[in-house]
Amino acid sequence: MAAIVIDGKAVAAKVKEDAKARAAGLREGGIIPCLAVLLVGEDPASLSYVSAKEQALAEAGMASKDIRLPREITEEELIARIAGFNADPAIHGILVQLPLPGHIREDAVIAAIDPAKDVDGFHPVSAGNLLLGRPGFIPCTPAGVVFLLRELGIPTAGAHAVVVGRSNIVGRPLANLLTRRDINATVTICHTGTVDLARHVREADILIAAAGKPALITAEMVREGAAVIDVGVNRVADPQAKKGYRLRGDVDFGPVAEKAAYITPVPGGVGPLTIAMLLQNVVDACRRQTSVCP
Ligand code: NAD
Question: Does ligand 1 come within 6 angstroms of the Cβ of 168?
Answer without folding.
Answer: no
